[in-house]
Design goal:
single chain, 321 residues, mainly alpha, Serine Threonine Protein Phosphatase 5, Tetratricopeptide repeat, two-stranded antiparallel sheet, 56% helix, elongated, Ankyrin-SOCS_Box, Ankyrin_rpt, ANK repeat, transcription cis-regulatory region binding
Length: 321
């Protein structure tokens, strides 16, 4: 008996943090000290089994340990402090355990690692539609943010997971949340060139004119589309009602950017939507001035020069009407 007591004390000292978390997680009126010690022991075993390679035998062990009272919020030692639920979600071999972990009260909104990802964000990154639904049905915070302020919807928009974007919106994801740089789901979809997702977001009333706070650039989705050569998306945004005269840092309009990059079709469309040709940027230049400067710099490239000369004519014809 004395030997057992000494071994128990050693175990408790080695696993001090685990002991504290387990004791704090249960009311003393619900559990006897002996039961708490048993739960701690089961939790320690659960952590060991979760860190082993997948096998059906280990799956059975994990289920039994949870049924006996092991803590579903146990943190693994490898990877360091990885929550059990994150391990299970990111490893398809363990997906059969998700429901039992949820039923045993795992923290469904726990954040992990430097990036502070949640289980829902992990499931979204893996484009796992059924798992996303399961987590949301079990009250996962659909608008939870990672370290960069990005939500599951933003991740889906970045990766081009159009079906998941539709699902997340239908589950109640907020479309116009901005991350720490001011990007919305629409900004992410635009920059990555996912036209189908841009269409989905527009149909669900995404704000077309929110500007970026990153380095105070003030870029709108339309301006980003032009800068990133996403011409089809730029056309889509213009037709959807983007403010064609909204300015970015240094007072640049979409027309100025289109003139600078030689986007003839966009210039034409902007002018059709009554883009203001007289607005001056920080340096006092209009869109026409910018096109003239670009034309002069490419004197040895006749094809490129022709683009800027065409833009100049389009702007002049707009002024004369």
């Amino acid at each position: 008996m004395k030997k057992i007591t000494i071994l128990l004390l050693i175990f408790l000292i080695i696993n001090k943090n685990l002991v504290i978390s387990m004791i704090e997680s249960h009311s003393t009126t619900e559990y006897s000290l002996l039961q708490k010690i048993r739960d701690i022991r089961y939790s320690f075993k659960l952590r060991q089994v979760l860190q082993e390679n997948y096998s059906q035998k280990n799956i059975i062990k994990i289920v039994k340990l949870l049924e006996k009272g092991a803590n579903p919020n146990i943190l693994l030692s490898s990877p360091y402090k990885q929550p059990a639920i994150i391990k299970i979600i990111t490893n398809p071999d363990f997906h059969s355990l998700i429901s039992i972990f949820l039923s045993k009260g795992t923290n469904i909104n726990i954040k992990y690692g430097f990036e502070e990802v949640t289980p829902l964000i992990c499931a979204t990154n893996n484009n796992d539609e059924s798992l996303v639904k399961l987590l949301i049905d079990n009250h996962a915070d659909i608008n939870a943010k990672d370290r960069e302020g990005q939500t599951a919807l933003m991740k889906a928009c970045q990766e081009g997971y159009s079906k998941l974007v539709i699902d997340l919106i239908s589950y109640g994801a907020e479309i116009n949340i901005q991350d720490q740089d001011g990007y919305t789901a629409l900004n992410h979809a635009t920059c990555e060139g996912h036209k189908d997702i841009v269409e989905i977001l527009i149909a669900n009333k995404a704000d077309l004119n929110l500007s970026l706070t990153f380095l105070n650039t003030g870029y709108t989705p339309l301006i980003q589309a032009i800068m990133n050569d996403k011409i089809d998306i730029a056309k889509l945004l213009i037709e959807a009602g983007s403010d064609v005269n909204q300015v970015s840092e240094k007072n640049w309009t979409a027309l100025m950017y289109a003139s600078y990059y030689g986007c003839i079709d966009i210039v034409r469309l902007l002018l059709d939507k009554n883009a203001n040709t007289t607005i001056e940027n920080y340096w006092g230049h209009t869109a026409k001035n910018i096109a003239l400067q670009q034309s002069e710099t490419c004197y040895d490239n006749s094809e490129l020069k022709s683009k800027f000369d065409t833009i100049i004519k389009l702007i002049d014809s707009k002024k004369s009407t």
